[in-house]
Model the fold of this input.
Amino acid sequence: MAKTLQAVRGMNDILPAESSAWQYLEDTLRDVVHAYGYSEIRLPLLEKTELFKRSIGEVTDIVEKEMYTFDDRNGDSLTLRPEGTASCVRACLQHGLLHNQVQRLWYMGPMFRHERPQKGRYRQFHQVGVESFGIPGPDIDAEMIFMTARMWERLGLTGASLQINSLGTPKARADYRNALVDYLQAHADALDEDSTRRLGSNPLRILDSKNPAMQDLIAAAPLLPDYLDEESAEHFSGFCALLDAAGISYEINPRLVRGLDYYSKTVFEWVTDQLGAQGTICAGGRYDGLVEYLGGKAIPAFGFALGLERLLAMLMSADAELPANEPHLYMVVSGAAATEHGLVLADKLRDAVPGLRLQVNCGGGSFKSQFKRADRCGADFALVIGDEEVAQKTAVLKPLRSNADQETVTQTALATRLGKLLSGKLDG
Ligand code: ATP
Ligand code: MG
Done:
Protein backbone atom coordinates (compact mmCIF):
# COMPACT_ATOMS: atom_id res chain seq x y z
CA MET A 1 0.00 0.00 0.00
CA ALA A 2 1.29 3.48 -0.81
CA LYS A 3 2.43 5.56 2.13
CA THR A 4 -0.29 8.03 3.07
CA LEU A 5 0.65 11.64 2.54
CA GLN A 6 1.15 13.92 5.49
CA ALA A 7 0.42 17.62 5.85
CA VAL A 8 3.29 20.06 5.47
CA ARG A 9 5.24 20.35 8.72
CA GLY A 10 3.90 23.14 10.92
CA MET A 11 0.59 23.28 9.05
CA ASN A 12 -2.25 21.82 11.05
CA ASP A 13 -5.59 20.31 10.22
CA ILE A 14 -8.35 21.55 12.46
CA LEU A 15 -10.37 18.40 13.06
CA PRO A 16 -14.11 18.24 13.72
CA ALA A 17 -13.53 17.73 17.43
CA GLU A 18 -11.68 21.06 17.58
CA SER A 19 -13.68 23.13 15.16
CA SER A 20 -16.41 24.12 17.58
CA ALA A 21 -13.83 25.74 19.86
CA TRP A 22 -12.44 27.59 16.85
CA GLN A 23 -15.90 28.75 15.85
CA TYR A 24 -16.61 29.93 19.36
CA LEU A 25 -13.35 31.87 19.43
CA GLU A 26 -13.91 33.39 16.00
CA ASP A 27 -17.55 34.29 16.73
CA THR A 28 -16.67 35.92 20.03
CA LEU A 29 -13.86 37.99 18.54
CA ARG A 30 -16.05 38.97 15.58
CA ASP A 31 -18.80 40.12 17.96
CA VAL A 32 -16.35 42.28 19.88
CA VAL A 33 -14.83 44.04 16.85
CA HIS A 34 -18.31 44.63 15.45
CA ALA A 35 -19.41 46.09 18.77
CA TYR A 36 -16.75 48.75 18.21
CA GLY A 37 -17.96 49.53 14.70
CA TYR A 38 -15.14 47.96 12.70
CA SER A 39 -15.78 46.53 9.22
CA GLU A 40 -14.34 43.35 7.82
CA ILE A 41 -11.93 43.45 4.90
CA ARG A 42 -11.00 40.18 3.16
CA LEU A 43 -7.60 40.06 1.58
CA PRO A 44 -5.81 37.59 -0.71
CA LEU A 45 -3.45 35.04 0.80
CA LEU A 46 -0.88 35.75 -1.91
CA GLU A 47 0.74 39.09 -2.63
CA LYS A 48 3.68 40.27 -4.65
CA THR A 49 6.83 39.63 -2.67
CA GLU A 50 7.85 43.25 -3.04
CA LEU A 51 4.94 44.38 -0.85
CA PHE A 52 6.29 42.55 2.18
CA LYS A 53 9.89 43.43 1.46
CA ARG A 54 8.99 47.09 1.35
CA SER A 55 6.56 47.22 4.24
CA ILE A 56 8.06 44.82 6.73
CA GLY A 57 11.65 45.72 5.92
CA GLU A 58 14.46 43.72 4.35
CA VAL A 59 16.35 43.22 7.60
CA THR A 60 13.68 41.43 9.61
CA ASP A 61 13.26 37.82 10.65
CA ILE A 62 10.15 37.60 8.54
CA VAL A 63 11.65 38.84 5.28
CA GLU A 64 15.09 37.34 5.79
CA LYS A 65 14.11 33.82 6.64
CA GLU A 66 10.42 33.21 7.27
CA MET A 67 8.59 33.94 4.03
CA TYR A 68 7.12 31.35 1.69
CA THR A 69 8.22 32.91 -1.58
CA PHE A 70 8.11 31.40 -5.04
CA ASP A 71 7.94 32.39 -8.68
CA ASP A 72 4.57 31.73 -10.30
CA ARG A 73 4.16 30.57 -13.89
CA ASN A 74 4.65 34.09 -15.19
CA GLY A 75 7.91 34.41 -13.32
CA ASP A 76 6.46 36.92 -10.82
CA SER A 77 7.76 36.55 -7.30
CA LEU A 78 4.82 35.93 -4.96
CA THR A 79 4.67 35.36 -1.22
CA LEU A 80 2.12 33.71 1.05
CA ARG A 81 1.22 36.49 3.43
CA PRO A 82 3.19 36.37 6.69
CA GLU A 83 0.94 39.05 8.25
CA GLY A 84 -2.02 41.20 7.26
CA THR A 85 -1.14 44.84 7.71
CA ALA A 86 0.81 45.22 4.47
CA SER A 87 -2.03 43.73 2.41
CA CYS A 88 -4.57 45.85 4.23
CA VAL A 89 -2.69 49.06 3.43
CA ARG A 90 -2.15 47.92 -0.15
CA ALA A 91 -5.87 47.25 -0.57
CA CYS A 92 -6.85 50.60 0.98
CA LEU A 93 -4.52 52.46 -1.38
CA GLN A 94 -5.54 50.45 -4.41
CA HIS A 95 -9.25 51.10 -3.82
CA GLY A 96 -9.00 54.68 -2.61
CA LEU A 97 -10.36 53.86 0.85
CA LEU A 98 -8.18 56.46 2.52
CA HIS A 99 -9.28 59.55 0.56
CA ASN A 100 -10.48 62.07 3.14
CA GLN A 101 -11.94 59.40 5.36
CA VAL A 102 -11.00 57.33 8.31
CA GLN A 103 -11.20 53.55 8.20
CA ARG A 104 -11.61 51.04 10.99
CA LEU A 105 -11.05 47.58 9.59
CA TRP A 106 -10.51 44.01 10.71
CA TYR A 107 -9.68 40.68 9.11
CA MET A 108 -9.17 37.09 10.16
CA GLY A 109 -7.36 34.23 8.54
CA PRO A 110 -4.23 32.18 8.03
CA MET A 111 -0.72 33.60 7.89
CA PHE A 112 2.41 31.74 6.78
CA ARG A 113 5.90 31.88 8.21
CA HIS A 114 8.68 29.36 7.81
CA GLU A 115 9.61 29.13 11.49
CA ARG A 116 10.70 26.18 13.57
CA PRO A 117 7.42 24.53 14.57
CA GLN A 118 6.88 24.16 18.31
CA LYS A 119 4.07 24.69 20.79
CA GLY A 120 2.42 28.01 19.94
CA ARG A 121 4.52 28.49 16.81
CA TYR A 122 3.41 27.08 13.50
CA ARG A 123 4.07 27.61 9.81
CA GLN A 124 0.44 28.21 9.06
CA PHE A 125 -1.21 30.03 11.92
CA HIS A 126 -4.24 32.27 12.26
CA GLN A 127 -4.57 35.88 13.22
CA VAL A 128 -7.29 38.40 13.82
CA GLY A 129 -5.97 41.78 12.75
CA VAL A 130 -7.52 45.16 13.46
CA GLU A 131 -6.35 48.37 11.78
CA SER A 132 -7.38 52.03 11.84
CA PHE A 133 -6.36 54.72 9.35
CA GLY A 134 -6.56 58.49 9.58
CA ILE A 135 -6.76 58.82 13.35
CA PRO A 136 -3.71 60.29 15.06
CA GLY A 137 -4.55 59.08 18.58
CA PRO A 138 -4.06 58.51 21.43
CA ASP A 139 -7.84 57.96 21.73
CA ILE A 140 -7.85 55.23 19.09
CA ASP A 141 -4.73 53.66 20.62
CA ALA A 142 -6.62 53.34 23.89
CA GLU A 143 -9.81 52.14 22.23
CA MET A 144 -7.96 49.23 20.68
CA ILE A 145 -6.60 48.28 24.08
CA PHE A 146 -10.13 48.45 25.51
CA MET A 147 -11.24 46.21 22.65
CA THR A 148 -8.59 43.60 23.35
CA ALA A 149 -9.31 43.70 27.08
CA ARG A 150 -12.97 43.08 26.29
CA MET A 151 -12.01 40.12 24.11
CA TRP A 152 -10.21 38.43 26.99
CA GLU A 153 -13.15 39.20 29.27
CA ARG A 154 -15.72 37.79 26.85
CA LEU A 155 -13.60 34.65 26.45
CA GLY A 156 -13.25 34.31 30.21
CA LEU A 157 -9.47 34.54 29.98
CA THR A 158 -7.57 35.86 32.91
CA GLY A 159 -3.83 35.92 33.05
CA ALA A 160 -3.00 38.20 30.14
CA SER A 161 -1.04 41.27 31.10
CA LEU A 162 -0.42 44.39 29.12
CA GLN A 163 2.99 45.87 28.33
CA ILE A 164 3.29 49.21 26.61
CA ASN A 165 6.02 51.51 25.33
CA SER A 166 6.53 54.39 22.98
CA LEU A 167 8.98 54.25 20.10
CA GLY A 168 8.76 58.00 19.50
CA THR A 169 8.86 59.86 16.22
CA PRO A 170 11.37 58.91 13.53
CA LYS A 171 13.65 61.73 14.76
CA ALA A 172 13.59 60.46 18.35
CA ARG A 173 14.20 56.95 17.14
CA ALA A 174 17.18 58.15 15.08
CA ASP A 175 18.71 59.82 18.17
CA TYR A 176 18.13 56.71 20.21
CA ARG A 177 19.47 54.54 17.45
CA ASN A 178 22.75 56.47 17.47
CA ALA A 179 23.10 56.06 21.23
CA LEU A 180 22.28 52.37 20.97
CA VAL A 181 24.78 51.79 18.18
CA ASP A 182 27.52 53.54 20.21
CA TYR A 183 26.74 51.30 23.16
CA LEU A 184 26.57 48.10 21.11
CA GLN A 185 29.75 48.93 19.22
CA ALA A 186 31.51 49.32 22.54
CA HIS A 187 30.39 45.74 23.32
CA ALA A 188 30.83 44.35 19.81
CA ASP A 189 32.55 41.19 21.07
CA ALA A 190 29.44 40.22 23.05
CA LEU A 191 27.10 40.36 20.05
CA ASP A 192 25.86 37.17 18.44
CA GLU A 193 25.95 36.68 14.69
CA ASP A 194 22.45 38.00 13.96
CA SER A 195 23.01 41.07 16.08
CA THR A 196 26.38 41.85 14.51
CA ARG A 197 24.71 41.80 11.13
CA ARG A 198 21.90 44.02 12.34
CA LEU A 199 24.12 46.55 14.02
CA GLY A 200 24.63 48.38 10.74
CA SER A 201 21.18 47.89 9.29
CA ASN A 202 18.63 47.68 12.06
CA PRO A 203 20.07 47.95 15.55
CA LEU A 204 16.70 48.42 17.35
CA ARG A 205 15.84 44.91 16.32
CA ILE A 206 18.68 43.65 18.48
CA LEU A 207 16.55 44.51 21.52
CA ASP A 208 14.02 42.01 20.20
CA SER A 209 16.58 39.19 20.21
CA LYS A 210 15.39 35.95 21.75
CA ASN A 211 18.95 34.70 22.35
CA PRO A 212 19.41 34.17 26.12
CA ALA A 213 23.12 34.98 25.82
CA MET A 214 22.21 38.47 24.66
CA GLN A 215 19.84 39.34 27.48
CA ASP A 216 22.34 40.92 29.90
CA LEU A 217 23.70 43.14 27.19
CA ILE A 218 20.18 44.18 26.22
CA ALA A 219 19.23 44.83 29.83
CA ALA A 220 22.05 47.35 30.24
CA ALA A 221 21.45 49.14 26.93
CA PRO A 222 20.33 52.77 26.77
CA LEU A 223 16.57 53.14 27.16
CA LEU A 224 14.27 54.43 24.49
CA PRO A 225 12.05 56.55 26.80
CA ASP A 226 15.08 58.69 27.68
CA TYR A 227 15.18 59.83 24.06
CA LEU A 228 11.50 60.45 23.59
CA ASP A 229 10.55 63.71 21.85
CA GLU A 230 7.98 66.02 23.38
CA GLU A 231 5.19 65.17 20.95
CA SER A 232 5.57 61.42 21.53
CA ALA A 233 5.88 61.87 25.30
CA GLU A 234 2.62 63.82 25.31
CA HIS A 235 0.95 61.20 23.14
CA PHE A 236 2.15 58.45 25.44
CA SER A 237 1.00 60.17 28.64
CA GLY A 238 -2.38 60.82 27.02
CA PHE A 239 -2.59 57.13 26.14
CA CYS A 240 -1.68 56.09 29.70
CA ALA A 241 -4.27 58.48 31.14
CA LEU A 242 -7.00 56.87 29.03
CA LEU A 243 -5.98 53.40 30.21
CA ASP A 244 -5.95 54.65 33.80
CA ALA A 245 -9.43 56.13 33.38
CA ALA A 246 -10.72 52.75 32.23
CA GLY A 247 -8.99 50.90 35.05
CA ILE A 248 -6.82 48.87 32.71
CA SER A 249 -3.54 48.01 34.33
CA TYR A 250 -0.33 47.92 32.35
CA GLU A 251 3.39 47.83 32.70
CA ILE A 252 5.63 50.26 30.85
CA ASN A 253 8.38 48.14 29.32
CA PRO A 254 11.11 50.44 27.95
CA ARG A 255 12.66 47.54 26.01
CA LEU A 256 9.51 46.65 24.17
CA VAL A 257 10.14 47.16 20.48
CA ARG A 258 8.17 45.53 17.72
CA GLY A 259 9.57 43.00 15.31
CA LEU A 260 8.31 45.06 12.39
CA ASP A 261 9.92 48.20 11.00
CA TYR A 262 7.00 50.49 10.49
CA TYR A 263 5.98 51.24 14.06
CA SER A 264 6.20 54.64 15.75
CA LYS A 265 4.95 56.04 19.07
CA THR A 266 2.66 53.59 20.91
CA VAL A 267 3.53 49.88 20.89
CA PHE A 268 1.98 47.20 23.05
CA GLU A 269 1.86 43.48 23.73
CA TRP A 270 -0.44 41.28 25.74
CA VAL A 271 1.60 38.51 27.29
CA THR A 272 0.85 35.51 29.46
CA ASP A 273 2.94 33.08 31.42
CA GLN A 274 0.42 30.29 30.78
CA LEU A 275 1.85 29.26 27.42
CA GLY A 276 5.52 28.69 28.06
CA ALA A 277 8.00 30.31 25.71
CA GLN A 278 5.41 31.54 23.20
CA GLY A 279 3.77 33.98 25.61
CA THR A 280 2.72 36.86 23.37
CA ILE A 281 -0.91 36.53 22.41
CA CYS A 282 -1.48 39.93 20.87
CA ALA A 283 0.79 42.71 19.67
CA GLY A 284 0.48 45.97 17.86
CA GLY A 285 0.94 49.68 17.82
CA ARG A 286 1.07 52.82 15.79
CA TYR A 287 2.55 52.84 12.31
CA ASP A 288 2.19 56.40 11.10
CA GLY A 289 4.86 56.02 8.42
CA LEU A 290 3.67 52.98 6.52
CA VAL A 291 0.91 54.37 4.30
CA GLU A 292 3.16 57.07 2.88
CA TYR A 293 5.98 54.58 2.56
CA LEU A 294 3.77 52.38 0.39
CA GLY A 295 2.89 55.29 -1.87
CA GLY A 296 -0.09 56.99 -0.16
CA LYS A 297 -0.38 60.27 1.70
CA ALA A 298 1.04 60.58 5.20
CA ILE A 299 -1.86 58.99 7.09
CA PRO A 300 -1.64 57.97 10.73
CA ALA A 301 -2.46 54.35 11.49
CA PHE A 302 -2.78 52.02 14.45
CA GLY A 303 -3.36 48.30 14.57
CA PHE A 304 -2.76 44.96 16.19
CA ALA A 305 -2.81 41.27 15.47
CA LEU A 306 -3.61 38.40 17.79
CA GLY A 307 -2.68 34.78 17.41
CA LEU A 308 -5.68 32.45 17.46
CA GLU A 309 -3.71 29.25 18.21
CA ARG A 310 -2.25 30.83 21.34
CA LEU A 311 -5.63 32.20 22.45
CA LEU A 312 -7.18 28.81 21.87
CA ALA A 313 -4.51 27.15 23.97
CA MET A 314 -5.32 29.57 26.80
CA LEU A 315 -9.01 28.89 26.37
CA MET A 316 -8.46 25.13 26.57
CA SER A 317 -6.28 25.35 29.66
CA ALA A 318 -8.87 27.60 31.30
CA ASP A 319 -11.43 24.78 30.87
CA ALA A 320 -13.82 27.32 29.45
CA GLU A 321 -17.32 26.07 28.84
CA LEU A 322 -17.69 25.98 25.07
CA PRO A 323 -21.04 25.95 23.30
CA ALA A 324 -21.94 22.53 21.96
CA ASN A 325 -22.51 21.91 18.28
CA GLU A 326 -23.58 18.28 18.36
CA PRO A 327 -27.01 17.47 16.92
CA HIS A 328 -29.87 17.70 19.42
CA LEU A 329 -31.77 15.05 17.62
CA TYR A 330 -30.97 11.97 15.50
CA MET A 331 -33.71 10.64 13.29
CA VAL A 332 -33.84 6.85 13.07
CA VAL A 333 -35.75 5.69 9.99
CA SER A 334 -36.82 2.14 9.22
CA GLY A 335 -38.12 1.20 5.77
CA ALA A 336 -38.40 2.99 2.42
CA ALA A 337 -41.59 4.85 3.32
CA ALA A 338 -40.08 6.12 6.56
CA THR A 339 -36.90 7.25 4.82
CA GLU A 340 -38.83 9.31 2.32
CA HIS A 341 -41.21 10.66 4.91
CA GLY A 342 -38.44 11.28 7.41
CA LEU A 343 -36.33 13.47 5.15
CA VAL A 344 -39.32 15.72 4.48
CA LEU A 345 -40.44 15.79 8.11
CA ALA A 346 -36.89 16.68 9.20
CA ASP A 347 -36.89 19.82 7.07
CA LYS A 348 -40.30 20.80 8.43
CA LEU A 349 -38.92 20.46 11.96
CA ARG A 350 -35.83 22.53 11.11
CA ASP A 351 -38.17 25.28 9.91
CA ALA A 352 -40.48 25.02 12.88
CA VAL A 353 -37.86 24.82 15.63
CA PRO A 354 -35.29 27.60 15.09
CA GLY A 355 -31.81 26.58 16.18
CA LEU A 356 -32.59 22.85 16.04
CA ARG A 357 -29.69 20.65 14.96
CA LEU A 358 -31.17 17.50 13.51
CA GLN A 359 -29.26 14.71 11.83
CA VAL A 360 -31.21 12.16 9.78
CA ASN A 361 -29.90 8.63 9.42
CA CYS A 362 -28.81 8.09 5.84
CA GLY A 363 -27.47 4.90 4.32
CA GLY A 364 -29.92 2.55 6.03
CA GLY A 365 -28.91 0.10 8.74
CA SER A 366 -30.60 -1.92 11.45
CA PHE A 367 -32.27 -0.22 14.41
CA LYS A 368 -29.32 -1.25 16.50
CA SER A 369 -26.71 0.29 14.23
CA GLN A 370 -28.78 3.44 13.78
CA PHE A 371 -29.06 3.86 17.55
CA LYS A 372 -25.32 3.37 17.81
CA ARG A 373 -24.80 6.24 15.37
CA ALA A 374 -27.33 8.33 17.27
CA ASP A 375 -25.40 7.79 20.44
CA ARG A 376 -22.03 8.46 18.86
CA CYS A 377 -23.10 11.78 17.31
CA GLY A 378 -23.88 13.15 20.76
CA ALA A 379 -27.59 13.77 20.23
CA ASP A 380 -29.87 14.15 23.26
CA PHE A 381 -32.79 12.36 21.63
CA ALA A 382 -33.51 9.86 18.92
CA LEU A 383 -36.64 10.40 16.86
CA VAL A 384 -37.83 7.08 15.50
CA ILE A 385 -39.96 6.71 12.38
CA GLY A 386 -41.04 3.31 11.05
CA ASP A 387 -43.91 2.13 8.86
CA GLU A 388 -46.36 2.32 11.73
CA GLU A 389 -45.40 5.88 12.61
CA VAL A 390 -45.73 6.93 8.96
CA ALA A 391 -49.22 5.42 8.87
CA GLN A 392 -50.26 6.93 12.21
CA LYS A 393 -48.52 10.30 11.55
CA THR A 394 -46.62 9.96 14.80
CA ALA A 395 -42.98 9.60 15.87
CA VAL A 396 -41.30 8.06 18.87
CA LEU A 397 -39.08 10.33 20.88
CA LYS A 398 -36.46 8.46 22.88
CA PRO A 399 -34.12 10.19 25.35
CA LEU A 400 -30.51 9.06 24.84
CA ARG A 401 -28.86 10.74 27.82
CA SER A 402 -31.34 9.96 30.57
CA ASN A 403 -33.49 7.07 31.75
CA ALA A 404 -36.70 8.95 31.05
CA ASP A 405 -39.38 6.99 29.18
CA GLN A 406 -39.77 7.26 25.45
CA GLU A 407 -42.95 8.94 24.25
CA THR A 408 -45.06 8.76 21.14
CA VAL A 409 -45.89 12.20 19.77
CA THR A 410 -48.13 13.12 16.88
CA GLN A 411 -46.14 14.78 14.11
CA THR A 412 -48.20 17.96 14.31
CA ALA A 413 -47.27 18.32 17.99
CA LEU A 414 -43.60 17.45 17.52
CA ALA A 415 -42.24 20.96 17.04
CA THR A 416 -43.86 22.24 20.22
CA ARG A 417 -42.76 19.22 22.20
CA LEU A 418 -39.15 19.51 20.95
CA GLY A 419 -39.09 23.24 21.66
CA LYS A 420 -40.05 22.45 25.25
CA LEU A 421 -37.66 19.51 25.71
CA LEU A 422 -34.73 21.41 24.25
CA SER A 423 -35.47 24.82 25.73
CA GLY A 424 -32.21 26.54 26.62
CA LYS A 425 -30.26 24.30 24.28
CA LEU A 426 -31.34 25.66 20.92
CA ASP A 427 -28.99 28.00 19.05
CA GLY A 428 -29.53 31.74 18.84
P1 ATP B 1 6.94 36.22 18.15
O1 ATP B 1 7.78 37.18 18.87
O2 ATP B 1 6.22 35.23 19.04
O3 ATP B 1 7.62 35.57 16.97
P2 ATP B 1 5.93 38.18 16.35
O4 ATP B 1 6.42 39.46 16.87
O5 ATP B 1 6.61 37.55 15.20
O6 ATP B 1 5.77 37.10 17.53
P3 ATP B 1 3.54 39.36 15.27
O7 ATP B 1 4.04 39.44 13.90
O8 ATP B 1 3.41 40.59 16.06
O9 ATP B 1 4.37 38.27 16.07
O10 ATP B 1 2.14 38.58 15.25
C1 ATP B 1 1.10 38.83 16.21
C2 ATP B 1 0.72 37.56 16.95
O11 ATP B 1 0.57 36.47 16.08
C3 ATP B 1 1.75 37.08 17.95
O12 ATP B 1 1.65 37.78 19.13
C4 ATP B 1 1.36 35.64 18.12
O13 ATP B 1 0.26 35.52 19.01
C5 ATP B 1 0.92 35.26 16.75
N1 ATP B 1 2.00 34.57 16.02
C6 ATP B 1 3.07 35.11 15.38
N2 ATP B 1 3.81 34.17 14.80
C7 ATP B 1 3.19 32.98 15.05
C8 ATP B 1 3.47 31.61 14.70
N3 ATP B 1 4.49 31.28 13.94
N4 ATP B 1 2.62 30.66 15.16
C9 ATP B 1 1.54 30.97 15.91
N5 ATP B 1 1.23 32.23 16.27
C10 ATP B 1 2.04 33.24 15.84
MG1 MG C 1 8.07 36.03 15.00
